[in-house]
Design brief:
There is one protein chain. 30% of the residues lie in helices and 23% in strands. It has 5 helices and 5 strands; from the N terminus they run H-E-E-H-E-H-E-E-H-H. It has a 5-stranded mixed beta sheet with strand order 2-1-3-4-5. The longest helix has 12 residues. The chain starts with a helix and ends with a helix. It binds tetrahydrodeoxyuridine. The site of tetrahydrodeoxyuridine has 13 residues, from strand 1 and helix 2.
Length: 137
């Protein structure tokens, strides 16, 4: 699975977004260490707070299925009904959820949908993080 293939699965997942309030559709594709992919989209709610981001939909689906070892996630977002044209970086809450299940070298692929993929690590996007390692010290 190449980074671009994972991005394309995130673009596909984005089609499932339920975004009647923001109109901003996000898709994610989460790759496990053994090569399985779990897709997710954002799912909004009229009370706003219960909205779930695409990344967390992908993580929670995978964790429910028993997955615990993750290699990378691809994330794309943009106005619903339009092609992706800008980068969509994960929100702070999703970065912290990634940290629960991933080490600092977990890879995050972002794309403007133009065939280019930018690669970050979790420690790039969540430096000096707090995790269960801190609790166990
Ligand atoms: N959103 C995501 O799905 N992932 C992110 O990391 C950024 C924000 C969603 C939440 C909400 O449905 C919409 O984008 C606008 O914030």
């Amino acid at each position: 699975m190449t980074p671009l293939e994972l991005v394309n699965l995130a673009i596909e997942a984005r089609e499932h977004a339920y975004v009647p309030y923001s109109g901003f559709a996000v898709g994610a594709a989460l790759l496990t260490k053994d090569g399985k992919v779990y897709q997710g989209c954002n799912i909004e709610n009229s009370a706003f707070g219960p909205t779930n981001c695409a990344e967390r939909t992908a993580f929670f689906t995978a964790v429910y299925q028993g997955e615990r070892d993750f290699e990378a996630i691809a994330i794309v977002g943009g106005r619903e009904g339009q092609p992706v044209s800008d980068l969509c970086a994960p929100c702070g809450v999703c970065r912290q959820v990634m940290r629960e299940f991933c080490k600092n070298d977990f890879k995050i692929y972002l794309s403007k949908g133009d065939g280019d993929v930018l690669t970050y690590t979790l420690s790039d996007l969540l430096p000096l993080s707090f995790s269960k390692d801190d609790l166990n010290r």
